[in-house]
Specification:
The protein is α/β, with parallel strands linked by helices and 386 residues long. It has two domains: 5-58 and 355-385, Urease, subunit C, domain 1, CATH 2.30.40; 61-346, Alpha-Beta Barrel (TIM Barrel). It is built from ten helices and 22 strands. The chain has helices at 38-41, 81-88, 105-117, 180-189, 203-212, 233-239, 257-266, 317-328, 332-337, 341-346; strands at 5-15, 18-28, 31-37, 48-51, 56-59, 61-66, 68-69, 72-73, 93-101, 127-128, 131-134, 168-173, 193-196, 216-217, 245-248, 272-274, 287-291, 294-298, 303-305, 364-367, 373-378, 381-385. The protein is globular and about 65 Å long.
Length: 386
């Protein structure tokens, strides 16, 4: 157990249910044990202090779809999960789902072994809390940047080793494919979140998938049937179902800012989860990078295959927050919910992470008013300071 005592003094707290100015937070044993005023903190036990006047204190950011960063791709090299995790904290990320895209099943098994083995000794950084397996059960007509040669129909045999206990937390599949219903039900029984994506599902097929156990949709509007007034398809099914959560990439490229604003007015912070779908070029200069087997051209704004198709993003997490606020006019607290409390609820961890409350894990980020990351704390340990 982390025995460090840490006190954050003078920050303005932004959390879905708590907003205080000039506050103090006491962290003991990796958890938040007291929240009070700076004056009250003078009576608290002694500990390491962070003077945070003029800064914002927010819950740690949770990322449910990221393919790699800092020149490393999780699918090609699953052993890079922890090296990337060490650096992700500079973007305010405290917990995340490393995403393995369509590839030989052995790659997923290697990534599972990395999650099961846990962090190396002395590790400090963001915590990978299970894999997001995106593929291979995708519709070939909406494969996006996924390799055609590794796509396959949904199969209980292929998914037999996927479970929450065995390192798989979320699976994206196309619900209209033959065999999908059986795989969805099987995965839900094993504690895996099932998300619809890379799909040509009709409205009826999507709704049937929701009834079977799908509770999320992967990068809304991207790699799926379009929103059509005759057949609303998967996007329409999502927007008509208030209990469903969905990922959205707010880089202004994957989804037009006007449409992000319209979706916000329909759904809001309780359904939308901001994802970056970032690939190996996140945090790196323009150049050529990998996304699984594919070569990707990165120009400083976007990441694309040589064909021109989008291949993930290079969107830093603080920029995702800034963009959502700019596209929708929402408050910082609401924007933060889309990267904190809402993904925590999807993951079934709403009583542990995603909020600044007494008893919660001390996953915290100090930001400037411009949302630049100053300090990241994971389980009460300082893992990044600018």
């Amino acid at each position: 157990m982390n025995s460090r005592r840490l006190i954050i003094m003078g920050a303005e707290i932004y959390s879905p249910v708590l907003c205080h100015s000039k506050s103090a937070v006491l962290i003991e044993g990796g958890r938040i044990t007291r929240i009070g005023t700076v004056a009250e903190a003078e009576t608290w036990p002694e500990g390491q202090k962070i003077e945070a006047n003029g800064l914002l204190l927010v819950p740690g950011l949770i990322e449910i779809q990221i393919n790699g960063a800092f020149g490393m791709d999780f699918t090609e090299r699953p052993e890079t999960i922890y090296p990337v995790a060490r650096e992700l904290s500079r973007f305010g990320v405290t917990r995340f789902l490393p995403t393995i895209i369509t590839s030989p099943l052995e790659k997923i098994q290697l990534a599972q072994s990395q999650i099961r083995s846990g962090p190396p000794d002395g590790f400090l950084g963001a915590v990978p809390i299970g894999l997001h397996v995106e593929g291979p059960f995708l519709n070939p007509e909406r494969k996006g940047a996924h390799s055609q040669e590794y796509l396959r129909p949904p199969s209980l045999d292929d998914a037999s080793q996927w479970s929450k206990e065995n390192g798989v937390r979320l699976v994206t599949l196309a619900p209209e494919l033959p065999g999908a219903d059986e795989v969805i039900a099987f995965l839900r029984q094993r504690g895996v979140i099932v998300s619809a994506g890379h799909s040509l599902a009709t409205l009826q097929q999507a709704q049937n998938g929701f009834k079977t156990g799908i509770c999320c949709v992967t990068h809304l509007f991207n790699a799926m049937s379009p929103l059509n007034h005759f057949d609303p398809g998967l996007p329409g099914a999502v927007l008509a179902e208030p209990s469903l959560r969905f990922g959205l990439i707010p880089d202004g490229i994957h989804v037009h800012p006007t449409l992000v604003g319209l979706v916000w007015r329909l759904t809001g912070a309780g359904q939308m989860i901001l994802v970056t779908d970032a690939m190996a070029a996140l945090g790196m200069p323009p150049g050529l990078y990998r996304l699984g087997k594919q070569e990707v051209v990165v120009d400083g704004t976007s990441a694309r295959l040589h064909s021109g198709n989008l291949a993930g993003s290079i969107l830093p997490h603080p920029t995702a927050l800034r963009n959502l606020i700019a596209f929708t006019g929402c408050s910082l607290s609401d924007a933060l919910s889309c990267m904190t409390s809402t993904p925590a609820e999807l993951l079934g961890m709403e009583d542990e992470i995603g909020r600044i409350e007494e008893g919660y894990r001390a996953d915290l980020v100090l930001l400037t008013p411009d949302l630049d990351v100053v300090c990241t704390v994971v389980d009460g340990e300082i893992v990044f300071q600018s």
